[in-house]
Amino acid sequence: MEEAFISKKELLDATGISYGQLYRWKRKHLIPEEWFIRKSTYTGQETFFPRERILDRIEKIQQLKGDLSLDELAGMLSPDLADTKLPSNELSPRGICSQAVLDFYMERYGEKESFTFGEVLQLYVLHGLLTGGNINRDEGKMVLQVMKDHSSEFENESCTLLIIRKLGVSACLLCSNLALARFDEETKVVEQIDLAEKIQALKMKWL
């Protein structure tokens, strides 16, 4: 599965930002350092970025920087998990998950009055997947278990959640470099979730 890339020059032309802005935002952790990828070209070394993710990130920064300081933006856009909790009765009003998804979670892991940021992220991702209709409840259980067991291992780097299916059998995995993932032709990618983007969206609901 190949991820499309955009060169630094193309990025600056497409977004209208300056070289200085790009690297100032990098220093402020608004743009993950791992997105700056050095590659060899016929003119020498050049910097490339994952195309969709960098364009989406710069669009968000440009939309929000008039209302928030760069430090506030960094707090919102950084993929670092915050050590905070949210009461269960605030999840539905904030648009994070439905009561049905919350009940589904509690059937498996027990009643809870409040949830950590990591647990809320699991509920938010599960809600999007189940309401999207591409996965069933058993696959939802699998997603929750994989995120509970392994998402903390990716706290400081980009991470993609993949749900794949082959001959009717499903599997779920987390990977840090989607560009290196390879599947045989009978394997179908059912869902592909960028967890850093989900964290950003969740933080906006959290504020």
Description:
By secondary structure, this protein is α+β, with helices and mostly antiparallel strands. Helices cover 44% and strands 20% of the residues. It is built from 8 helices and 8 strands; from the N terminus they run E-H-H-E-E-H-H-E-H-E-H-H-E-E-E-H. The chain has a 3-stranded antiparallel beta sheet. Strand 6 (160-166) and strand 7 form a beta hairpin. The longest helix has 16 residues, at 117-132. The radius of gyration is 19 Å and the shape is globular. It starts with a strand and ends with a helix.
Q: Quick recap of the structure?
A:
The protein is of the alpha+beta class and 207 residues long. It is built from eight helices and eight strands. A hairpin with a 2-residue loop joins β6 (160-166) and β7.
Secondary-structure topology with pairs:
Elements: E1 5-7, H1 8-15, H2 19-27, E2 37-41, E3 44-50, H3 51-64, H4 70-77, E4 85-87, H5 99-109, E5 114-116, H6 117-132, H7 137-150, E6 160-166, E7 169-175, E8 188-194, H8 195-206
Antiparallel strand pairs: 1-3, 2-3, 4-5, 6-7, 6-8
Helix pairs in contact: 6-7, 6-8
Question: What features would you highlight for this structure?
Answer:
207 residues; alpha+beta; three-stranded antiparallel sheet; 20% strand; globular
Uncertain parts: none
What's the overall average pLDDT, rounded? Answer: 85
Helix percentage range: 40-55%
Contiguous helical run count: 8
Number of strands: 8
Q: What's the gyration radius in Å?
A: 19 Å
Strand order of the largest sheet: 1-3-2
Termini distance? 35 Å
Q: H/E element string?
A: EHHEEHHEHEHHEEEH
Report the β-strand fraction as a percent range. 15-25%
| Global geometry | globular
Q: How can the largest sheet be summarized?
A: 3 strands, antiparallel
Structural class by helix and strand composition: alpha+beta
